[in-house]
Amino acid sequence: KDRPGHLSYILIKQDLKMGMMMAVFREKAEYLIVQVVMESRQVAWIHSEDKIEGALDLHEIREVRPGKNSKDFERCKDSKDHQDKTCFTIFYGSQFVLNTLSLSGEFVEDAEKWLIGLELLRQEALAAPTPAIIESWLRKQMYSIDQTKKNSISMKDLKFLLPQISFKIPHARYLKDKFFLSLQFTVAFLLTCLSVFQELWANDLNQVRELMTTFINDMMGKTSDPEFTVSEFLSFLFSKENSIWDKKFSDLHSLDMNNPLSHYWINSSHNTYLTGDQLQSKSSSEAYVRCLRMGCRCIELDCWDGPKGEPIILHGNTRTSKVKFVDVVKAINDHAFVASEYPVILSIEEHCCIEQQERMATIFKEVFKDRLLTQPVDPMIDQLPSPAQLKGKIIIKVGEQWTERKMLHAGMAFCKRFYLACFQQWNRHYCVISDDKLYYAEEYDEGTENVKLHFSEPWFHGRLSEGRRTAERLLQEYCSEFGETDGTFLVRESEISPGNLVISLWQEGRMQHYQIFSGSRDGCPFYFITENLCFLSVYELIQHYRQNADLYGNPSLTDAVPCPNPHLTKNWFHSTLTRDEAEHILMKIPHDGAFLIRQTKTRQSFAITFRADGSVKHFHIQKKGLMFVLDCSAEFDNLVDLVKYYRKNPLYHTTRLRYPVTEELVIRLDSVRLDEMEWWREWAVVSSTYIHWKILLQVTEDNPLGPLCKGVFDLSKCDVTLTAGKNGLPQVFTLHVKEDESVLSYDLGTTSEDITEWFSLAWDAMYREKTKQSKASHVKSQKKENDKKHVVAKEMSDLAVYCQPRRKDIYNFERYDYKEIRSFVENKAPLSDSKVRDFLRYNRKALSRIYPKGQRVDSSNYDPLPLWICGCHMVALNFQTADKFMQVNNALFSLNGGTGYVLQPEMMRSDGFNPKMQQDKKVQYTVTIRVRHASYHPFSLLPDNGLNPVWAGRPVPVEFLVCEPELTFVRFVVNEEDMFSDPNFLAQATFPFKGIRSGYRSVPLKNGYSEDIELASLLVYIDVQLGGVEEEMNSSSSQLWRRTESAATSSTKQHENLGTCNSLSTLWRFLSVLQQQILLLKIGDKSAMLFCLCLFNDYLHLCLHLLM
C-alpha cells in the first residue's frame, strides 16, 4: 500500500479534498458530494456548496470496509443498481454499536482511492501532534457555525458557539474583557522549562530541541533555538507527548510469545453476539467484528437449530434476536487477525441436533480453510503450544455448557403482562418461572407505538377549540408572517367525525381540508386519504405526503404550522394543580415513572412531578425566551419534546417517564383515601417497593433476573386458573393468592400461542406442592432427559484439538490433561483457601474460562482481577458494557501490543505463589497523586465552566499503597454532577501501574470503551516511592518538589496578597517576576526550573482569580 509522502498518496489526498459525487445509501440512495475537509480532519457529505448535511471525524473511524458489507445495502433497494466493487462503508463512532456511512462511487477506481486514502488519513489523524489536533478542533468548531469557511465569526456567533463546548458566558462584558486580557499571553517560555519533567533525555539539548521542533511543527528548521509560548507550553503539559503512560509498555514483545498458552491471560468475551442486555437486545455479526477489532481473542457462539437445516446463533430462551451461523463465521474469518495475528479461540455452546452440528463443522472447514486448527502442533510435547506457534490459527472449543442459567424452565422465553387496574392497561414485564417461583422484572419498554407517533410532532394540534375556524386562522397567521407557501399545513382532530383526523393546508391562496380515515385489518389499524394508499400510522402518512406530490394531484405538504403551545393538548399537563395537590395525587400511585407537568403560581414557569425510588419528586422547568430549561441544565423547544426525551432516557437514576397522570385519573383519585385503595393492592405487584404480602418473597441476589427483578411469586402457594376473554386479551391466567382471610388475584397474559405453556408451568408448580411430589426427583429426571438430548457430533468434537471441555469433577484437580479446559461461573470459581493453590497449579498446565452468572441479565460485568491473580486465562466479560471492569480489562490488554495475550508475571508461575499472602511478602509502594487541572473536556465542579476546569488552591494529595505492581491498576474517572447532585460518567483513564511515569503528567482521557477522546486530559502530579526510597525508574521530581516547596509556598502567599487587588497592573508585575526567573534558567538547573513551574502555576491561578 502507498504510504504518506509518496506522490500517489499526495494525489489521493487532493482528490479526497476536492470531493466527488457519490451515492449515499439510506432508505433510498441519495447522490451527494462527499469530501474530506483536511483543515478540520472530517469527512463531510454535502447537498450543495452552502449546505453540509453531516460530517464525521477521521479519528472516530474504526473501519473502512470494501463491498456491500453493511445492513445499509440490504435495506436500500437502489443498491442493486451498483456494483459491489464500487461500494464501501465507513464504520465510525464511540459506542459499541457503530454508525455507518455506506457509499458508492461511479467507478471501481474511485472506491479504491477512498479505501486507501481514508485509512491513511485515519492513521495520520491518530498520530498527529497535539498542536495540529488543537488547530483542527478549533477549525471544526468554527466551521460548525461558519459553513462558508470565511475563517471569521461574529461576536453573535461566538456567543452561540461557547455553550456548545460547555463554556457559559457569565455576563455581557465577559467576552470583551476576556479577549483583551488573552492577547497578552504571548511571553516566551524557554526550552529549559521542560527539564522539570526529569526525563532521562532532558539534559540532551539536541533531543529536547527535536521534541520542541516537532511539537510546534517547525519542521523546516526556521530556528536552531526553538521556544515555547505560554500557549504552547500549556498545550505540551496536557498533550499525549507528556502522557502519564510510558509507551514502551504498549510495544509487542515477541520473545514473550513463546510460552505455553496456559501462561497467558487471554482477552475474552461473553455472549459475543449480543449488542445489549441478555434478555431482549439485538444479536449481530457486527458485534463479533467490534470485539475482534477491540483485541478480543476468545469469542463465544451459542448455536441452536435454525430453519432449513441452517444453524443460528442467539441467547436461548430469551427475546434476543437471532443471527445466521454462517454470517457470523464469515465475519470472524474476515476480521479475526486485523488487530492481532495471534490465535482466536471460538467457545461453542452447543444446542444443535446432530445434523446441524455436522453442518456447522462443514461451514467451519469451508470458510476458515487452512486457518482452522485440526491437528496438534507437536503431538510429542506434553504441553500446550505457544501463541507464536499458533499465529493465524482458529481454535475450536466445543461442548454443552451446563449452568444453572440453562436449567431454567422453558418459560424464560416469554414476556408476560400484568394488568394495571389504576391505568386500565396492560404493561409488559419480563418473567421467568424457575424452581416453582415466578420472577418478574420492571416494565419492558417497547418504545412509542406507531399509531401514536404523531402525538409528539409539532404539526399535530390535537383538538382545537373551534375546529376548522381556528385551523384556518392559524394557517392565515403563519402564511402572513412567513409567506404564502403552497402546502403549508397542520393536522387536527375532526370536530365532525370524532376519532378521525383532518389535514388543513394552504393551497393556491385558499384553505383546503382533507380527512384522514382509519380502519382495521387483522387487528392492526391503518390510515388513508384515498383507499388505494394505506399507512400503518398517521406519522407515516404525513411523511409520505411531505415527500410526494400525490395528495389529490396537489403539491406535497411543505411547511408545518407548529402548535403554539403543544403541551395544552396533552393529557399529562395540568394548569391548575398546586404542588401539594400534585404530590397528594402521586402518593396514591405507588409506581415509579408516573408523572404530570403543572404550571406554577407565577404562570411563567412549570414543574414536573413524578415518582422515583419510592418517593415523589419535583423539578422546576423555567421558560427562557423560547426555550424550556429543566433545572438549569437540559434545554428543549417545548414541553412535549421534554416528555418525549425522558420517556426514552432516565430522568432520575434509572427512572423514565412512563405513566401520564391524566385529568380523569386525578378526578378519580381525588376522593380516595390511601388506606381504602383496593385497586392499589391489585396492581402493586408491578413495584416490589410496595409489596408487603407474605406470598411475595423477598428478592434475593441470585434470582434468575438479577438486579432487574422486582418481585417473586411462590407458585406452590397459589391457585391458578385459566380465563377466556378478560381485560381485552383472548386468554389470561390468574394467580389467586391467599392473604390472611382474603384472596388477591393477579391477571397475567401473553400471546395466545404461549399462554397454554405458561399456564402449564404454573399449574405444575402448584400441583407438585399439593401432591407433595419431590422437586429434587423432578429436576433429576429432567436433567437425565436433557443429557440424552445433547450429544456433540463427532465432526465437531474432532475439531476440538486443545480446548476440550471437561464437565464432570471440575473441582477435582488431582488429575488433568493439558488439552482440557474447565469453565466456571464467576461466583463458583475455586478461589477458597483450600482450593486456590490446586487451582493455580492446574492453571499453569491447562486452561480455564470464567463467565458471568446468569443473574447479570443487564450485561453488567464482574471484577476480573481476583480471577486473573489466580491464573485464570479466559475471564469472559460483556464487551458491550462500558463499565469499570471492562475498562480494567482493556487496560491489561493494552500491554504487549494489544495482541490479546499478556504473559502472566513470573512469580505467578512459581509453586510458592499464593495470591492471598502477597501483602505480607512484598515491599509496598507508596503512590501520591495530585490532580491539578483538566483540559478540553466538558466537566467541572465549577459552575458554567466545563471547558478548562481548575481545582482552586493546591490540590489535596491522594496516597495509595501498592503491594504488587504487576497486578495493580491506576484508574482516573471524571464525573459530571447533574441537577440531582448525582455523578454522571464522562470519561476515564485506566493504566497498569507498572507503566505509569512520575512527575507532572498529562492523563489522556478515554470514553467508556477505552477509546481516546480528542484533546481531553487531566494534569496530575504523581510521585512513586519504594520502601521509603523514591522510585527512580521514571522520575525523581518529588525530591525537587521538596527542595523548592518553601519557595513555592512563598510564591503562593504573594499570589494571595496580590489576588485581593483587582487590577491588571498587579497581574503584569507578577508576570514580570516570572519572566525574570525564566530568563535566568540554565539547562540542568532543575530546582530553578521547578520553581518556575510553581510560579507559573500561581500565575495562572491569579489570572483565573482576576477574570472571575
Automatic annotation (TrEMBL):
Keywords: Calcium, Hydrolase, Lipid degradation, Lipid metabolism, Phosphoprotein, Repeat, SH2 domain, SH3 domain, Transducer. It comes from the Eukaryota. CDD domains: C2_PLC_like (cd00275). Its EC number is 3.1.4.11. One of its GO terms (cellular component) is ruffle membrane. The keyword Isomerase does not apply. Its cofactor is Ca(2+). InterPro entries: C2_domain_sf, PH-like_dom_sf, PI-PLC_fam, PLC-like_Pdiesterase_TIM-brl, PLCG_EF-hand_2, PLipase_C_PInositol-sp_X_dom, PLipase_C_Pinositol-sp_Y, SH2. One of its GO terms (molecular function) is phosphatidylinositol-4,5-bisphosphate phospholipase C activity. It holds the Pfam family PI-PLC-X. Residues 796-909 form the PI-PLC Y-box domain. One of its GO terms (biological process) is phosphatidylinositol metabolic process. It catalyses: a 1,2-diacyl-sn-glycero-3-phospho-(1D-myo-inositol-4,5-bisphosphate) + H2O = 1D-myo-inositol 1,4,5-trisphosphate + a 1,2-diacyl-sn-glycerol + H(+). PANTHER family: 1-PHOSPHATIDYLINOSITOL 4,5-BISPHOSPHATE PHOSPHODIESTERASE GAMMA-2, PHOSPHOINOSITIDE-SPECIFIC PHOSPHOLIPASE C FAMILY PROTEIN. This is Phosphoinositide phospholipase C.
